[in-house]
Amino acid sequence: MARKYSRSASKDVEREMRKYKRGKLKSGRGGKGGTVKSRKQAIAIGLSEARKKGKKVPKKASNGRRKKRKAKTKRKSRR
């Protein structure tokens, strides 16, 4: 099976995680927001950076997709 993320994209995430662990990772445009508190947010920032560089990273899941999936599963369970 093919890789979902490129190796270089995972390096970007790794770099952001190190910043997060040191307490140096900031959120927001240009790092003007506060320091990042959650691991998930740190990973999201790393993936976002990889996308900006044009690396192989799947598209963000939009809220619309999630709602459609939930609606389909509810219909099936009622029957």
General description of the model:
With 79 residues, this protein is mostly helical. It has helices spanning 7-22, 39-52, 63-78. It is 58% helix and 0% strand. Helix 1 (7-22) packs across helix 2 (39-52).
Topology, element by element:
Blueprint: H1 7-22, H2 39-52, H3 63-78
Helix pairs in contact: 1-2
Order of helices and strands: HHH
Number of separate domains: 1
State the share of residues found in helices, binned by percent. 55-70%
What is the mean predicted local confidence, pLDDT? 86
- β content, as a range? under 5%
Instruction: Tell me the radius of gyration.
Output: 16 Å
Give a quick rundown of the structure.
By secondary structure, this protein is mostly helical. It has 3 helices and no strands. Helix 1 crosses helix 2 (39-52).
Pick out its properties.
single chain, 79 residues, mainly alpha, 3 helices, extended
